[in-house]
């Protein structure tokens, strides 16, 4: 299993689902944003959801490091936060202004970003 490709496909699927179900995607992002204030009632719910999302990403990255498809230098925790921020931020931008950019191109750019950032360099790959 190539963990980078699995993660890249997940990112693409996430973006497709968020905009394919725009009403649900908007509702999720509105509630997620409403959870930001310290006294927000939904804050604990979204904190747990975000933690699970990051943990799943970290688990995938750890497996990729174990099988050599993710560079050893990748910080699992920080990268998980970046991935969550990337997909939620792109989805929010698109739902706010769908004509502002081409979503399939943005998804391909995410895939390339993940490959460039997470894959071991040729010299680092197992032989």
TrEMBL record:
Pfam families: TetR_C_6
Residues in BetI-type transcriptional repressor C-terminal domain copies: 5-116
Domain of life: Bacteria
Gene3D superfamilies on file: Tetracycline Repressor, domain 2 (1.10.357.10)
Protein name: BetI-type transcriptional repressor C-terminal domain-containing protein
Annotated source species: Nocardia yunnanensis
């Amino acid at each position: 299993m190539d963990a980078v490709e699995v993660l890249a496909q997940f990112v693409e699927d996430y973006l497709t689902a968020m905009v394919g179900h725009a009403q649900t995607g908007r509702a999720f992002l509105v509630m997620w944003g409403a959870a930001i204030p310290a006294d927000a009632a939904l804050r604990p719910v979204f904190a747990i959801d975000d933690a699970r999302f990051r943990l799943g990403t970290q688990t995938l990255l750890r497996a990729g490091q174990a099988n050599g498809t993710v560079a050893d230098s990748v910080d699992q925790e920080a990268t998980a936060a970046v991935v969550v921020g990337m997909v939620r931020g792109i989805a929010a931008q698109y739902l706010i202004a769908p004509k502002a950019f081409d979503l399939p191109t943005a998804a391909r750019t995410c895939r390339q970003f993940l490959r460039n950032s997470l894959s071991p360099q040729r010299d680092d790959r197992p032989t």
